[in-house]
Amino acid sequence: MPPRSYQLLLFLVILELTSVAVAASGEDEDEEQAACAAANRTDAARLRADRLTVILTGYSERRLPLLRAIAGAYAAHPLVLAVVVLWCNPSTPDRLLLGGAGFPPRAAVRRAASASLNSRFLPRPSDVRTAAVAVADDDVLPDAAALSFAFFAWQQHQRPVPGPGPLVGFFARSHHLDLTRGRWAYTAPQPGRYSMVLTKLMVLGTDLLRAYSCSPELAAARAVVDRERNCEDILMNFVAAEASGAGPVLVEAGGVRDWGDPRNDAAGEGPRGGARDVGLSATGGLGHWETRGRCITEFHRLLGRMPLRYSYGKLVQATGGDQGLCSKGGRLVHCDQ
């Protein structure tokens, strides 16, 4: 049996770790409450419908050079009013995050209270003055034509009466009921249909941020996101489908560079190498798909209903797979090529 002094030291370490976890949880709740209170005071009629805000989420310090370059490209787009860089790694020192080449002047860097993926969808009235936002990963960049097309598609799907429209995105996924296992499964787009778009790059109405973050009914579902460190995009698809009564809209235009796709050649990553192995877009193999199927099942159980709806087409000719561009053999090609 360990000596009493060791037991006491172990107890103090556990107590300290527990205190840190409780403090982080309290910070999350404070940030959420403040964001929701501010959103309640926002006048939706004053939000600009002709421009777009981009919310980029970063965590990996190794990706900072890439994130700065991506933020600069978004900031230069004529339809982008503002870029918000949401940094979710609380241990990163300011000198590393804000030093060096830095971010472009039109990119506001905001530290999240914790690494919670729910932070991606907090309403941010002080930063977001547009009716639509593009939520994107830190390793994906559409060309100018692709981003414009996605934004115009979002505008076209808005309704004359108040209420959110569907999500718009470039990367589709689906779900189906696995009868042999008695649970929902998360899958690639099924032949001719899909039911979700990913936060690799999605365009959505600003009002959906409030619906996701501020609904007491979704508190348990947001807790699942925190527990799994995954599935925030799936939950947003639940929220959007329920609010709009429609499935998402898949679009295709231009090119979308995807550094995080595991189908990139490692040698083709250049000075921004390592993007495949870290960060928000890293693919977790079969376990990742299992986790996301479990999330769908858990969200369904918690809500008591299945709001996801299938969509059956896209706005342009289908390519038969993801639209991300990967580096292969020294060339940029579609990742599934």
TrEMBL record:
GO terms for molecular function: glycosyltransferase activity. The gene is At1g80290. Keywords: Disulfide bond, Signal, Transferase. GO terms for cellular component: membrane. PANTHER family: GLYCOSYLTRANSFERASE FAMILY PROTEIN 64 C3. Belongs to the glycosyltransferase 64 family. This is Glycosyltransferase family protein 64 C3. Residues 53-315 form the Glycosyl transferase domain. Residues 1-23 form the signal peptide. It comes from the Eukaryota. It comes from Zea mays. The lineage of its organism: Eukaryota, Viridiplantae, Streptophyta, Embryophyta, Tracheophyta. The keyword Oxidoreductase does not apply.
